[in-house]
Design brief:
It is a single chain. This protein has three domains: 44 residues; 163 residues, Arc Repressor Mutant, subunit A (Orthogonal Bundle), CATH 1.10.10.10; 100 residues, Arc Repressor Mutant, subunit A (Orthogonal Bundle). 42% of the residues lie in helices and 20% in strands. The protein is built from 13 helices and twelve strands. The strands form four sheets. A four-stranded antiparallel sheet has the order 2-3-5-6. It has a three-stranded antiparallel sheet with strand order 4-8-7. The chain has a three-stranded antiparallel sheet with strand order 10-12-11. It is globular, with a radius of gyration of 31 Å.
């Protein structure tokens, strides 16, 4: 059997024979031009080599002490985990910008989180941080409830599962000084209904913030000692991102931690009470209140004290420079 590709030019010639001479000549010239420009299979392979497959890069969590918990800066410096009380129903938000400090932008879609959800997320990150990002972590519901300092009744099991669903359902679009990522805080989980064991996937996209140092840790003992005070817990998380926080306006501070109260007087009283709680657990040495601002005085960790001493040495003064928000 003859090769049809080899007889193709003769077939074309038979068709061209029926056309006027000048048109047949033009078509022959056009066909030859295409043939001359068409690269051979060998030259095509040489011009476009197949890219070599790249090995997946494992990103390790930074290490933190057993008595601390850590998350991305923007998690603590925005109203992503706002102060909600029992009288405030959780709202479903659709691409809503949340209050945050300068340089941080957080847009949220989903059912609102709160500080109890942050408790769960911090424990998940602590469980996962011994392995690289993207590697699943496992735990039992009982073990996580005990780590959270909660009871282990049926209601607490249901609440924990609902919180994991909520953390998966919320979509966070986060930008911290031009570094932008978006997605769920966790990617999903598998639950064994017999043993109540969970296998959870932490979203590896947030590794980018840890990799470039945009993260902070807090004293988990102090946070637990604050009990159910969501305002104090939110302030504790926020101030833990500052080596030396300066004076804050009451309304600015309330917005950053998601404290909603139409009565400014009650909001101010709530913030002052929360600062007193932070003093009681040893996080603050003291604080100063004014008509419009409140200034915390933090009991510095050794690393914070070293950082402040270094800044003072560079500036040539022993007086700490205050940060205004």
């Amino acid at each position: 059997m003859s090769d049809p590709t080899k007889s193709l030019p003769d077939e074309l010639e038979a068709e061209l024979a029926h056309l006027p001479g000048h048109l047949a000549k033009a078509l022959r010239s056009f066909r030859q031009t295409l043939a001359d420009k068409a690269p051979s299979s060998a030259s095509t392979h040489e011009a476009r080599p197949e890219p070599a497959p790249q090995e997946a890069q494992l990103i390790l969590f930074p290490k933190w002490a057993d008595d601390r918990r850590a998350a991305m800066h923007a998690t603590f410096r925005s109203a992503l985990f706002p102060v909600l009380n029992n009288q405030q129903p959780r709202r479903f938000l659709q691409a809503v910008p949340l209050a945050s400090v300068d340089g941080v932008e957080v847009v949220f879609t989903g059912q609102q989180f709160d500080q109890s959800d942050l408790d769960v997320y911090l424990e998940l990150l602590n469980i996962a941080h011994e392995t690289p990002f993207g590697i699943e972590c496992s735990f039992t519901a009982y073990g996580l409830l005990k780590a959270l300092g909660r009871s282990t009744g049926a209601e607490q099991y249901r609440q924990l599962h609902a919180q994991l669903i909520r953390l998966r359902g919320g979509t966070v679009d986060m930008t911290d000084h031009k570094v932008r990522c978006f997605g769920g805080l966790i990617e999903g989980a598998i639950k064994d209904e017999i043993t109540t064991a969970y296998t959870v996937s932490i979203n590896p996209k947030w590794a980018r913030y840890f990799k470039v140092g945009m993260w902070a840790s807090l004293d988990i003992g102090q946070r637990r000692a604050l009990g159910r005070s969501q305002t104090a817990k939110a302030l504790h998380a926020y101030y833990s991102t500052h080596a030396n926080p300066g004076p804050h306006r009451y309304e600015t501070l309330a917005a950053i931690i998601g404290l909603k109260n139409s009565n400014l007087r009650d909001s101010k009283a709530n913030l002052i009470k929360a600062h007193e709680a932070l003093k009681q657990v040893g996080f603050l040495k003291d604080f100063e209140t004014g008509p419009d601002t409140i200034t915390p005085k933090v009991n510095h960790t050794p690393s914070q004290a070293q950082y402040i001493a270094g800044k003072n040495a560079k500036s040539g003064t022993r007086r700490p420079r205050k940060e205004l928000s």
